[in-house]
Amino acid sequence: MKPFLHLSTMAEIKKITKAEQQGQTKIRTVPVAVTPEGFWCCPSPVAFQKTLKSHNSLHKPKHSPPTTDKKPAEKEKEKEKEKRPSSTTIRSVIASDEQQQQSNPEETTHHSIAVPVTTLPRKVAIEFGEPGSSDAKVILVGKQGFCVKLSVHKKVLVDHSSFFAKKLSEKDSVFACLEIESCEDAEIYVETVGLMYCKDMKQRLMKQSVTRVLRVLNVAELLGFGSCVQSCLDYLEAVPWVGEEEEEKVISSILRLKTEGVSVVTTPVLKRVASSSVDPPKETLSRIIELVLRSKEEKSRREMKSIVLKLLREQNGNNVAENFNETIYSSCQSCLDTVLSLFRQAEETDAKQIGVEADNLTWLLDVLAERQAAEEFSVTWANQKELALLHEKVPLVSRYHISRVTSRLFVGIGRGELLPSKDTRLLLLTTWLQPLFKDYNWLQHGCRSFDGKLVEEGIGRTILTLPLEDQQRILMSWLGSFLNGGDGCPNLQRAFEVWWRRSFVRPYSDRQGSGVSQTDSTSKE
């Protein structure tokens, strides 16, 4: 419910403002908003910050103009006098304020407190509540220089707070006074005590941010204010959490409550991030993969592939089912069977469908590479001899999509993302390099995501991992295709140069022969 100010408060502020304009003693006023429930509602954070800022600016040391008529000894005495701390303390301010209330009972109905700035050189005192009707005081001594005095009622404190109930049970006097030293969050302490007077805490919390409710939750827990803790949890369960940072704050706060054994139900809040579903993670992930692969809408399919791959990359294998790779390979086999069936139709092949299946295979290979489990796929692809033989019979406009899968494998090997055996690397080059040469021109011009430089580097590095004889055979075959095809063939000149140096400039056999006696060779030089 929206707080409001009594008319007497506004009149008081006007009086003090007028007095300041007339040059009288400066007074610090703190208006108190009163709820219909009969208590205060905590001022906004800006009010606390403005009060502290004004206090600091008022008490900054002012440099007086230099005088020439004073003696050095007198100046030293004045400096020492300035350095001495003021004898006025928080307790003396509170005591003097209580005496003023007793001598002027009519003034206790005002809902603002006027504190002479000159009496508070280092502290700012703020009072909340109605001293005339209260039978207890709670004094909060904040770390930021605040002294906050709350005029409260023992019954309200005892009914709502186990902390206050315990402390008040130790007090024998009719009028109790409790002090909380080094209060880290005085503002929220005031807010939380004020909530003890509210009939509908949920309505009050609805106007707050998630961060502020978490602060209230923390103080409510410290005070043993169980109903407030539960109201905060109900709020957190219903309100949206904006961003990962806010979500982490909420979850850490809730988990801390569970760890410390607070007797409240935290499960509803945690259900947002922790599932008790009986479905294993593997089945859920399999369903996601299947939905993405079978999507008929190209744009949505492409976007979801990017999102799923990004999320799997962020997890880096953590909290992902160990047998998830089996699901991926099952999907790969399904795509391969579809491609093989389409290739067998030769002239009647569906170019669009082949493109979709080739894109699916490339994406699944990306997923396996991220999970460091792509070696088996390279073996499977290298052994697709029937698919490679059918390749020449299929129109170029349909078949070139399949060479994207071959290109991705070479890029992965060149980057070290997968480490297939020597026999697999050789079989992969023997089976699929020539079909790639024939499709290369179409790949360059018909595939937007194709990176020719990256593919050429991957092919060259893959070739250079083979024995020198195999390097020579494959590169000589490439040389014939390159000289006839020009830009329509991958440029493997770097790999060719490395092979050339290995073979002719300083062959390993020569280095081995000259290195039999390394000491002698060094001495001759």
From TrEMBL:
Residues 54-63 have a biased composition (Basic residues). Keywords: Ubl conjugation pathway. Gene3D superfamilies: Potassium Channel Kv1.1, Chain A. Residues 285-506 form the At3g05675-like ankyrin-like domain. Residues 54-115 are annotated as: Disordered. It comes from the Eukaryota. The keyword Ribonucleoprotein does not apply. Residues 68-85 have a biased composition (Basic and acidic residues). InterPro entries: At3g05675-like, At3g05675-like_ankyrin, SKP1/BTB/POZ_sf. The keyword NAD does not apply. Pathway: Protein modification; protein ubiquitination. Residues 86-106 have a biased composition (Polar residues). May act as a substrate-specific adapter of an E3 ubiquitin-protein ligase complex (CUL3-RBX1-BTB) which mediates the ubiquitination and subsequent proteasomal degradation of target proteins. This is At3g05675-like ankyrin-like domain-containing protein. It comes from Brassica napus (Rape).
